[in-house]
Input
Amino acid sequence: MELNLPTLTTAVLVSIGAVISAPVLYKGFARRGKGVLYEKNFLIQRAPQYSTLLNVILIAAAHLANNGVISGFDPALLCQARLLPAPFGEAVQWGGVAILVSGLIFMVGGWISLAECFTTDAEVLDGHKVRRNGLLGLVMHPAYSGIIQSVLGSGLASGSFVCAAFTLAVVAPLWLNRAKYEESILIENLGPEYKQYGEEMKWRRLVPKFIPIGI
Output
């Protein structure tokens, strides 16, 4: 099986990201559910994760279809970039790869920036404190921003506008909702210091504050 270059590049980047993030993710999973404030709310805790997993499955299928691995139907059903003139379709895919690179940096860098405050669920840990270091100085929730960028970029790299639309319409709003919930419990527990941090960041939850517009 010979993969096209955008798919091969995507696979290599994701593999590198997985290796680099494994140690910090392990620690994040170990801390999960042990916070002093933890709410077992499906919409907050699991819906963003499960929707992202579904998005990844769709993206994988789109990459396989784009490389002729899945047969028996028109690949353009999953890979709409095929319908564009070749230069434009390729530009979409390589643009997706660029977004993926940014996403992996924000995702892994966000987890590392949180250090001992990182857990894979939304909760307040014992000894939780306001952190402004690393990527937390650019955006309030760099890991969530990175997750969204990563799946959006991977979807575009596969040539699938459907996957990209799913990211923007379903995955991104769920992570944004979780980000707002986290802010509410952090303000409740950390007080004015966290609220001041939010104001300093212009409440940029997903889009870095140096970008003129965003949320």
Summary: The CA atoms of residues 67 and 207 lie 33 Å apart. The chain has a mean pLDDT of 93.
